[in-house]
Amino acid sequence: DSSEIVDIENYVKANQVRPNDDLFGIAKGKNVVLISLESTQSFVINEKINGKEITPFLNDLIKDSYYFPNFYHQTSQGKTSDAEFIVDNSLFGLPSGAVYFTHSQNEYKATPEILKDEGYYSASFHANNKSFWNRDIMYLTLGYDQYFSQRYYDITEENSVGWGLKDIDFFNQSADIMKDIPQPFYAKFITLTNHHPFKLSKEESYVDRYDSGDGTVDRFFPTVRYMDESIKIFFDRLKADGLYENSIFILYGDHYGISENHNDAMAKWLDREITPFETVQLQRVPFIVHIPGHKDTRVIDSVGGQIDVKPTILHLLGIETTNDIMFGTDLLAENRESYAVLRDGSYIMEDYLFTDSNCYDKATGEITDISNCEPYREKSRQHLQYSDQIIYGDLLRFLNKPENFKYQQ
Ligand code: GP9
Ligand code: MN
């Protein structure tokens, strides 16, 4: 009932972290270009296959950005849609099923809705059927003004592979569409070529396949490389079209591409056994914040996750979040705790990692005394439980309609 939200609100307010004074509002009024990197895990960043970089463009971009090597995806069965949900709401997806399907009629206060009040227009660009993951319905709920789905793209057999339109064609056609959208905008681009089964012709591959003998893992490298190229082309287009300077760029990996079924091939790639500890570490996905013209760029090692993206973006745009119910904290805030909890209850601290009822020392990857993981045990349980309670009970409706809601009943 409505009293539940009071406890949660008190908890969230007591745990808020002050934004970074130097960075708050640094991108005020700028466009936001949000790019979902399909199935991209951090283990490909700054690595080579047969002497060639797997992500040359992202590797360069990182040098001119804030880059977070210890950023985790927090998705579950809702995959890409869970990532979208977490990023836009700073709430977790559900322990099973996809919140995009099961709770699309709830009240939320997602980033597009918040930005609408600041004069922003929001759109999502993705060349798949509009109802996939129930996006057409959920985007309306989340406050998107427009969904440029499959039917807005010219898709032929020639320019398609695997799940659909190839990323290079997707970004080229998206850039055409962008010439006509209002500014400032919050625009999300969901890539697709680097999706299982990672199909791509040899002629279009910029790097070799890996040679583990596990086809899924072997094909993953060329499709990641292809996606990297598509983003380079997109950036070049935005520069040519005069949109680059006026925008900030937020890139995130949506979820793992290589499941635990491929541990043997991954052990070969990493040259070590895939223990439960390594499995959690493999849930790291790239997170890059690129602000054109901004000179303070660095690698930020602290632990974070998709839940932290919303406050990070809003604070860069100079928007206060003190009245929002969020379970993440601004990744650029100075007093932020280095921490992330995954949907399965695993959690990662600065020096320790909890998974599968064991506490691991991150420096060695060895099991250590469980008491080392104790400090974040309750918090981890609480965050997931509160977030679920909000979604199952549609509790944000009590906050979004303050005129109908009395705190003291
Ligand atoms: C489909 C794309 C991929 O539209 O988002 O979905 P996934 O299987 O990764 O959730
Ligand atoms: Mn995906």
Automatic annotation (TrEMBL):
UniProt keyword annotation of RNA-binding present: no
One Gene Ontology molecular-function label: metal ion binding
Chief location bin: membrane
UniProt-annotated location(s): Cell membrane
Amino-acid positions noted as binding substrate in the UniProt annotation, renumbered to this chain: H195
Keywords on record: Cell membrane, Manganese, Membrane, Metal-binding, Transmembrane, Transmembrane helix
Keyword Glycoprotein carried by entry: no
CC terms in the record's Gene Ontology section: plasma membrane
Domain (Sulfatase N-terminal): residue spans on this chain: 30-319
Family: Belongs to the LTA synthase family.
Protein name as it appears in the record: Sulfatase N-terminal domain-containing protein
Lineage: Bacteria, Bacillati, Bacillota, Bacilli, Bacillales
Shown residues within the full chain: 213 to 621 of 621
